[in-house]
Design goal:
By secondary structure, the chain is α+β, with helices and mostly antiparallel strands. Helices cover 41% and strands 14% of the residues. A hairpin with a 3-residue loop joins strand 1 (4-10) and strand 2 (14-19). The radius of gyration is 22 Å and the shape is globular.
């Protein structure tokens, strides 16, 4: 028994994920690998080495913190309590792209890489041109990658049943043409029409086939770009964070614990001084089940990546009873603590909906603007 099902939530939300059994706080609801995932373009360019398939970092925690802090003499205590095995790293014989092992290499080849293997040293290759063009349109902090879109197309073309694979992808698309265009506008900026046409032409130079033609039309490509911008789940992996979690579980004296906590605080200070907030290997993936979770400003579940790769875990953070909708927050923790108006404004801007969750309804008497949160001229209209 899975303990959940995907079914229609309501006419506005579309589908949702619902519990079919009781989940206590802390229970794991599901774990899932994405249909496809992809590291962000700038993240990869800045040498955040990761498996091209599962995004597992290809550096040890010690190597990771030395690179991020630019301090090559840092030695991590208890380094043996968590380490990343780099002995099994494999590479594509044709292009040299790296994987954490033979299994990921083969999976990538079977799902998308057979169509996308290329000479990474060829500056005129269509994939290199597409990536460089994308990077000039989408600077950090990154939210998606055009290569996730390309891998979706390769996933369809390489499938044993391309028609069924295309239908799987189309299940993620449920917005109108105008809504798709507005989402792409948010993603690419004022010149989005010209940029979208440029990306579409370049993508067609990278991959083109019988089963993906509908996604390479102006309307189809806009819909696919909106899909990766909104349904693409952010993925973050960090060797340093995995080491911190592991040493936190060790048994030690209070004095040792205090010294370790001070050491970890100092590590993060070093890293922040040099690398700012860009600590993780970052990318996004398309998850078939997890993407069915709708937003709530009082979520009863949260997503994480406890295995240091792209496998997602959905865990209950509150009691969930049979029949309850399983919800997550599309907002980060900081935004989630802001006023109802600010939350709804951000959701309307980035996801094109006004939230009517229980928390928003309970805070309906709050003023539309507080002294701490100034309003802009393009306030959202609750009637839209």
């Amino acid at each position: 028994m899975a303990g959940f099902e995907v079914r229609t939530s309501n006419s506005k939300k579309g589908k949702g994920l619902f519990a079919t059994k009781k989940f206590d706080k802390g229970d794991i609801i599901l774990e899932e690998d994405p249909l496809v995932s992809c590291q962000f373009a700038w993240n990869a360019a800045y040498k955040y080495l990761a498996c091209d398939y599962c995004m597992r970092p290809l550096e040890t925690p010690e190597q990771n913190v030395r690179r991020l802090s630019c301090k090559p003499d840092i030695v991590l205590p208890h380094a043996n309590c968590f380490d990343i095995n780099l002995e099994n790293i494999a590479s594509c014989e044709q292009c040299g792209i790296l994987y954490c092992g033979e299994e990921c290499k083969q999976r990538a080849f079977n799902i998308y890489h057979r169509s996308l293997c290329y000479d990474t040293t060829d500056s005129q290759h269509p994939i290199v041109i597409l990536l460089e063009t994308w990077k000039q349109m989408h600077y950090p902090p990154e939210t998606t990658s055009v290569m996730l879109l390309v891998r979706i197309l390769a996933f369809i073309e390489q499938s044993n049943d391309p028609t069924a694979a295309a239908n799987v992808i189309k299940q993620f698309c449920h917005r109108t043409v105008n809504e798709d265009a507005e989402l792409v506008h948010k993603l690419l900026g004022e010149q989005f029409t010209d940029q979208l046409n440029t990306l579409r032409d370049m993508t067609a130079n990278v991959i083109n086939g019988e089963y993906i033609q509908e996604f390479l039309t102006p309307e189809g490509f806009c819909s696919l770009m909106a899909l990766v911008g909104t349904n693409g789940q952010g993925i973050g992996t960090s060797p340093l964070a995995l080491w911190v979690n592991s040493v936190s579980e060790l048994t030690m004296s209070d004095d040792e614990r205090q010294q370790l906590d001070l050491f970890i605080d100092k590590l993060y200070q070093y890293v922040e001084q040099e690398s700012g907030t860009f600590l993780n290997t970052e990318g996004s993936g398309l998850f078939r089940l997890q993407s069915a979770c709708n937003h709530s400003c009082a979520p009863n579940a949260e997503s994480s990546f406890p295995y240091g790769n792209h496998r997602i875990q959905l865990k209950a953070i509150d009691l969930i009873m049979p029949g309850d909708e399983i919800s997550i927050s599309y907002l980060d923790e900081c935004s989630l603590q802001r006023s109802r108006h600010s939350r709804q404004k951000e959701l309307a801007q980035n996801y094109l909906f006004v939230c009517w969750c229980e928390r928003c309804l309970a805070q309906g008497s709050q003023p539309d603007c507080t002294s701490e949160e100034e309003m802009s001229d393009d306030d959202i209209d609750d009637e839209d």
